[in-house]
Amino acid sequence: MSKIYVDQIEPKTANGNVSISGYTQAVMGKKETYENTTSTSYVTTGLEVTITPVASNSKILINCSWNTGFNNNDHAVIYTLYRDSTNLSTATTQSFGAYSFNGGDSNSTINYATRTASLVYLDEPNTTSAVTYKLMFKTSNASYTAKFNINVQGESDAQRTCTIVAQEIRV
């Protein structure tokens, strides 16, 4: 009796090319420490993920979740997403979100307002080389401190886990 052993079976299209769509891989980055800035130019939060697409026409779906805060009324923490050294925001503000804070925490000894924030972005990097996605942030006013990954009291201890997930989608 004969046996056939194979490692993988791939479908074949009429023209001989292989065509498979759907999720092919997912990678996650996380950060559990605190960052702050008084910079009005983008700096890294340290939340990043690297993915190497299998196909050059793949799309990469990015999902981020984090905690943010600010120590003064009427100012903002501004976030964007970079692919390597390229800001992916096409808005004239070059940001994906400005989180404005009007008032501090209800505890009168703390003057920080905090929010949970998230970002979803579908990218087309057109490469099979490794790409790194980084969440960047800045303050709207250098006189005030923008905080990344703080707890609800605006403190830098007892941070939460922030995550960034990159999923490759073959088309």
Question: What would the keywords be for this entry?
Answer:
171 residues; six-stranded antiparallel β-sheet; 11 strands; 0% helix; 48% strand
Written description of the protein model:
- The protein has strands spanning 22-31, 35-37, 43-51, 59-70, 75-83, 86-87, 97-101, 113-123, 131-139, 146-148, 162-170.
- By secondary structure, the chain is mainly β.
- The radius of gyration is 21 Å and the shape is elongated.
- Residues 100-110 have low confidence and may be disordered.
Brief write-up:
With 171 residues, the chain is an all-beta fold. The chain is built from no helices and 11 strands. It has strands at residues 22-31, 35-37, 43-51, 59-70, 75-83, 86-87, 97-101, 113-123, 131-139, 146-148, 162-170.
Biggest sheet descriptor: 6 strands, antiparallel
How far apart the termini lie comes to 41 Å
Beta strands, count:
11
Assess the beta-strand content as a share of residues.
Answer: over 45%
Average pLDDT for all residues? 79
Question: How would you sum up the global shape?
Answer: elongated
Query: C-alpha Rg, in Å?
Result: 21 Å
Contiguous uncertain segments of 5+ residues: 100-110
SSE order in H/E notation? EEEEEEEEEEE
Helix content: under 10%
The helix-and-strand class reads: mainly beta
**How many helices?**
0
Give the SSE map.
Elements lengths: L21 E10 L3 E3 L5 E9 L7 E12 L4 E9 L2 E2 L9 E5 L11 E11 L7 E9 L6 E3 L13 E9 L1
